[in-house]
Amino acid sequence: MHESSTADLVKQLWQRGNPIREIGRLLHLSRSTVRRLLKREELPDSMELRDESAQELAALIQSLLPACRGNLVRVHEILTGDDYKYDLSYSTLTHMVRKHQLKEDGKKKRFGVYSYDPGVEMQHDSSPHRLLINGQATTTQCASLIFGYSRKLFIQYYPCFTRFEAKIFLQEALSFMGGSCQRCVIDNTSVILGAGAGSYAVVAQDMLFFSRVFGFTFMAHAVRDANRKGKIERQFHYAENNFLAGRTFKDWADLNAQARLWCEIANDKIKPELGSKSPNAVFILEKPTLIALPAVMPPIYKTLQRVADTEGCINLDRNRYSVPESHIGHTMDVHCYMDKIEIYYQHRFVARHPRIVGQRNKRITIAGHHPRFIKQKRQDAHVQVERQLKGHNTVLDAYLTSLKSHVKGRGMSSFKQLLRLKQTYPWDAFMAAVTQASRYGLYDMKRLETMILKQIRECIFNL
Q: What CATH number labels 121-289?
């Protein structure tokens, strides 16, 4: 029973002489409730807006709301401040605004259900999702497309969502669907629109050409009317709490491969709003009404210009791709596809690289683009000389180690002279001289050669 009718009944019983205990027993109320209903006073006239002062207060509140941008806390501060000095609690203010609908912004409005014939409308939108890729938390952009009649769904993920990614996604989505509807409902995003909003929206020129290739038109819904594309809005919650739950991803390719597989499974599930049918079952009726795909899919890429830096690389999305050294300082034309980039100079092909997606500060170098520097060649020659000297005798290895610490720099000249002595003179005489030089700490190659010749004179030419 409503509280006002209960209060009237309690007052009638009390006026007839019934005690509080008896009233509580008859109406199944506690004695404290009966007392509260008997003592309850009518609401003040100010809350019912019955007198002129209350009407003036309501008009004042309504005039302050636009200036305060609908902030009732600020309205309450102004009313109770030095300018007006109203003795008004915040709860009374909110009650007046709520009951008499002085503030219309927060009021929920009824909206209907949009239904369409097969092949008439599809809806597209994107939303940020937080997930783990290779164990690292990453903010991704989930792009989705749904058919209004069959509710067939397709989603993919991208590091960012520009017009380039929008074209790639829509082409892939329409290929997945096998055709397109007559119109595509979108929100008022600058990714697709060039100017305006709602019915005054102007589609960007490149996106307009793209839609003409596939035979559909973009339609932006009215501002703050997200329910117009509610079929796609609900799918983001579905994907975030069903697809992403309990799944791990190695990289972006693995993420989108699992997303495509999940779409095939989700489109086979029964939906009550489709009359206990799955989207794939209803799509059988919608497919004949779709606009056929073009015979040849246009390649989607964006053309950029980059100058080859002094290290023989071009920079793209904070990653570096190599070009031949002969192009240092040249302005290169870069054709950026989803999975690769192609580099041209004066319309001539220069190089092709796999595109790095979702990473930064990476570098790809093709063999032959950057010949080794002279310093590197000298270092390799030094290593080769040292390799020919080591591993033949432990005494010689120990002498080489000591020689490194007694010569300036890398000791390339001393190592070459030692290798020449090893290759020129007999091994026994050479090792006898090295052993003696190691014992006395002699590292002058000319003196070592003199010691070798002395060994040869004593051992070989002893007549």
A: 3.30.420.10
| C-alpha to C-alpha distance for 90 and 365, rounded to whole angstroms | 68
How far apart (Å, rounded) are the C-alpha atoms in residues 243 and 226?
23
Q: Which CATH architecture best describes the domain 3-39?
A: Orthogonal Bundle (1.10)
- Cα–Cα distances (Å) from 312 to 43, 91, 359, in that order, read 82, 70, 21
pTM of the predicted model, to two decimals? Answer: 0.62
- List the structure tokens of 55: 């009407």
Place of tokens 């009944």: 9
Q: Sketch the domain layout of the chain as residue ranges.
A: 3-39, 45-99, 121-289, 302-364, 375-459
Tens digit of each residue's pLDDT, the chain (463 residues): 556 678 888 888 888 888 888 888 888 889 888 888 887 644 444 444 455 677 788 888 888 888 887 888 888 988 888 888 888 889 888 888 887 778 765 555 666 677 788 999 999 999 999 999 988 899 999 999 999 999 999 999 999 999 999 999 999 999 999 999 999 999 998 999 999 988 899 999 999 999 999 999 999 998 888 788 888 888 898 898 889 988 889 999 999 999 999 999 999 999 988 888 999 999 999 999 999 999 988 899 999 999 999 889 999 989 999 999 899 999 999 999 999 999 999 999 999 999 998 888 999 999 888 876 655 566 666 677 777 778 778 888 888 878 877 777 666 778 788 888 888 888 888 888 888 888 888 888 888 888 888 888 776 555 4
Structure tokens given for 12: 């009638």
d(CA 170, CA 214): 10
Task: Write the single-letter amino acid at 52.
Answer: E
Report yes or no: 144 and 125 within 8 Å, Cβ to Cβ: yes
- Tell me which residue has tokens 């749904």: 146
Q: Crossing angle for the helix pair 163-177 and 205-214, nearest 10 degrees?
A: 10
How do strand 319-322 and strand 302-307 relate by DSSP bridges?
unpaired
